[in-house]
Design a protein that fits this description.
Layout (H helix, E strand, L loop, with lengths): L2 H4 L3 H9 L2 E6 L8 H14 L6 E6 L11 E5 L2 E5 L4 H11 L11 H10 L3
Parallel strand pairs: 1-2
Antiparallel strand pairs: 1-3, 3-4
Bound molecules: FE2/S2 (inorganic) cluster.
């Protein structure tokens, strides 16, 4: 009955927790409408990269930054960073980073991307 757990040490469990790469998408009232496209973009990119065992997507409650939403938390091996005003394109970049891929910005779109970022979205 305890065969598997008898072989797992406390250190193994702590290592697994700290090695996690998770994108938490706010499902609070202000971010709720934007959450499904973000979740869809993240899940699709994870499938494209075959990173289902590396990067997870979860829902979370209000992060207290509602006016700057939609917001996400990126947890990378125990480090947690909140990102505000996230678009489907930027969440794909976060997935790429967590999966060990460099963000892809085509040369022709580089200036447009910077301008869009300065405006607060894509
Ligand atoms: S509802 Fe998303 S930060 Fe408050």
């Amino acid at each position: 009955m305890f065969g598997f757990w008898a072989q797992v040490s406390y250190t193994d469990v702590v290592s697994l927790v700290h090695m996690s790469k998770v994108i938490k998408i706010c499902r609070g009232k202000s971010c709720l409408r934007a959450a499904p496209p973000l979740e869809q973009a993240a899940e699709e990119r994870i499938r494209q990269l075959h990173a289902e065992d590396v990067v997870k997507v979860e829902a979370c409650g209000c992060l207290g930054k509602c006016k700057q939403g939609p917001n996400i938390i990126v947890e990378n091996d125990g480090r947690s960073v909140t990102h505000r005003g996230v678009s489907p394109r930027t969440i794909v970049q976060r997935v790429d980073e967590l999966a060990g891929k460099k963000p892809v910005i085509e040369p022709g779109n580089a200036q447009r991307s910077v301008n869009d970022l300065l405006k607060g979205g894509f």
